[in-house]
From TrEMBL:
It is found in: Cell membrane. Residues 1-50 are annotated as: Disordered. Pfam families: Chromate_transp. The chain crosses the membrane at residues 65-88, 134-158, 206-230, 242-263, 283-301, 322-346, 358-384, 396-416, 436-456, 463-481. InterPro entries: Chr_Tranpt_l_chain, CHR_Transporter, Chromate_transpt. This is Chromate transporter. One of its GO terms (cellular component) is plasma membrane. Keywords: Cell membrane, Membrane, Transmembrane, Transmembrane helix. GO terms for molecular function: chromate transmembrane transporter activity. It comes from the Eukaryota.
């Protein structure tokens, strides 16, 4: 084309064609609206995909990564698994924004169906994001090590003096309601984002119903795995507006439970026994930890009854009173609750062959308990990432995550009840006057729970938990020592 062509005036015919162009390209308002809605839907879908793939994890060296998880989470893992998960979420997701809340919820839901403590698995997941699989191992060790060392020390002290010391019992009685307050607040924080829709950030009533029904199922002693899987599937149907299949499944769960209860009786934890630890030898302790760790879906709460049946009822080498004590210590220490296995291994090894074997027993049962957790989380990291991003399974994990809140809530209220009322042992103490005095401590424990809960909601600094633990231990000497002196 010549310069003359570019500068020549437009002919009338050309001008007519130009005027016709807007007429040809003019779009009907309805078509514009449809295009806009399609674009908005595509944008929303892309946003959700971005939320599930976003990663801003810093690349840390292995020593720095170990110290990060050791200092920020291992030393501050007070209050049990619920509080630990809330702490990890608050620090890494909300404050430092390594990943989005949507991705965290999806990852958390995936780990609900894997064996092992979720808090440790989350630390390994973030370690993998920062420094690969080796980083995941280092992060997991950093989180677990403080609690393991403290439980090992507690096991040794227990062997030397026992926990019947009145000074220890006074402090421990004050700490129980404080730990219950920590779990209560942590349950609230986790539920904040577990029952909301990722797209609209509004509360999803179906996820709330899933949490409530799962809590009811837990009180009926319906198997936790059945409830979690069932509500994951039900929510998949609800998300696709398949109301009839969802309703049928919802009704069938209670019909099936009623039939089982009529013909077989109410489910009992004793049915979990396999008889794999009739004696507390090192190999038996390792196998006990390995099987318990493999069965610990949802954390320690499913491992506790299994270990109890094997060691207390079937094996008979661990007294019930000692087992209750080890669970109580596990609830107080900054560690995953499955660390109670360290105590069980220590006492079993001590019974089988003395103090040297006690330390070996504590180590081997702990290795067995955490091996499945490391194996599935580290070796299967890539597969887990694919599960997290799978659109078909996304609604299943959302439903599962909502249902888990019901399980956590029931456990929290059970711990709250026992921390205020005490244990059944308290009512059989002799003389009778001492038993009455111990029962009367419920009012003081309730006040401690209320004060601790108010402090936790007022102050958010991570040192608050340690201050509360220290203050509770001291306060117990003034509040409960006199009542326990006669024991």
């Amino acid at each position: 084309m010549s310069m003359a062509d570019l500068t020549s005036p437009i002919s009338p015919h050309q001008d007519k064609d130009v005027e016709a162009l807007p007429q040809c390209n003019r779009v009907h308002p309805q078509e514009t609206k449809e295009v806009s809605e399609a674009t908005q839907s595509s944008s929303t879908s892309n946003t959700q995909d971005d939320d599930l793939t976003y990663s801003n994890a810093p690349k840390l060296s292995l020593p720095r990564l170990f110290w990060y998880f050791f200092y920020n989470f291992g030393l501050f893992a007070w209050g049990g698994p619920v509080a630990q998960i809330a702490l990890i979420k608050e620090q890494i997701v909300i404050k430092e924004k390594w990943i989005t809340i949507a991705r965290f919820q999806r990852v958390f839901a995936v780990y609900q169906i894997l064996p092992g403590p979720e808090a440790a698995e989350l630390c390994m997941f973030f370690g993998c994001l920062s420094a690969g699989r080796l980083g995941g191992i280092v992060a997991g060790l950093g989180f677990i090590l403080p609690g393991f060392i403290l439980m090992l020390v507690a096991s040794y002290l227990y062997t030397l003096a026992g926990l019947e010391n009145k000074y220890f019992n006074a402090s421990f009685r004050a700490l129980q309601p404080i730990v219950a307050a920590m779990m209560f607040k942590a349950t609230h924080k986790i539920a904040d984002h577990s029952v909301v829709k990722h797209g609209t950030r509004t509360v999803d009533p179906f996820l709330v119903i899933a949490a409530i029904c799962t809590a009811i199922n837990s009180t009926l002693r319906l198997n936790i795995f059945i409830s979690l899987g069932l509500y994951g599937v039900i929510y998949m149907f609800i998300a696709r507006r398949l109301w009839i299949p969802a309703g049928i499944l919802f009704i069938l769960q209670y019909v099936g439970y009623a039939l089982y209860a009529v013909y077989r009786g109410v489910p009992s934890p004793v049915s979990l026994a396999l008889g794999i630890a009739k004696t507390p030898s090192l190999i038996n302790l390792f196998v006990l930890g390995l099987v318990a760790g493999t069965l610990s879906f949802g954390g320690a709460y499913t491992a506790i009854p299994f270990v109890q049946v094997e060691a207390v009822l079937k094996g008979g080498w661990l007294p019930q009173r000692v087992f209750i004590d080890c669970i109580a210590i596990g609830n107080v220490l900054p560690a995953p609750l499955v660390i109670f296995a360290t105590f069980v291994g220590f006492q079993g090894g001590n019974t089988d062959g003395g103090l040297g074997k006690a330390f070996a027993g504590a180590v081997v049962i702990t290795l067995g308990m955490f091996f499945p957790c490391f194996l599935f989380t580290i070796a299967g990291h890539s597969l887990l990432e694919k599960l997290v991003h799978n659109k078909f399974l996304s609604s299943f994990f959302d439903g599962l995550c909502g249902a888990v809140i019901g399980v956590i809530a029931v456990i929290t209220f059970q711990i709250l009840k026992s921390s205020i009322q005490g244990t059944e042992r308290d009512f059989f103490v002799k003389p009778v006057e001492v038993a009455i005095a111990k029962a009367a401590q419920s009012g003081i424990a309730a006040v401690l729970f209320t004060v601790a809960l108010a402090v936790l909601y007022k102050f958010t600094n991570k040192w608050v938990t340690i201050v509360l633990i220290a203050a509770g231990a001291v306060a117990g000497q003034f509040l409960f020592l006199d009542e326990l002196s006669g024991h």
